[in-house]
Amino acid sequence: MENIIISLPDSLRVFVEEQLRLGNYSNASEYFSLLVQQDQQRQAKQRLETMLIEGIESGTAEPMTAQDWDQIRQAVREGVAQNQEKNQG
User: Fold this and answer.
1) Confidence (pTM)
2) Number of domains in the chain
3) pLDDT in tens, 18-73
4) Of 19, 57, 60, 85, which has the maximum CB count within 10 A?
5) Structural domain harbouring 47
6) Which of 9, 4, 3 is closest to 17 using CA atoms?
7) Is residue 19 part of a domain?
8) For residues 74, 80, 83 and 88, what is the CA-based torsion angle, rounded to 10 degrees?
9) How far apart are CA 55 and CA 88, in angstroms?
10) Is 24 a domain residue?
């Protein structure tokens, strides 16, 4: 694990120290790790919402055909094969 040095203005440093004093977190590292995880989750949710909206706005849905599923399976097989080649090489 690597260390990151973070400089905070006094008002934010006092806030973090208060969170630690209240017993909400065992140390500043735990507090900042949780903040980063929450931001990752927020961004992932935002990306998902964007993709869902794009899907909704993309037009009328059409039923999947057997050919569509065959193409999806083939693309997955090719992707797996490429990953295996990368891992072996």
Assistant:
1) 0.62
2) 1
3) 999 999 899 999 999 999 999 999 999 999 999 999 999 998 988 999 999 999 99
4) 19
5) 1-59
6) 9
7) yes
8) -120
9) 36
10) yes
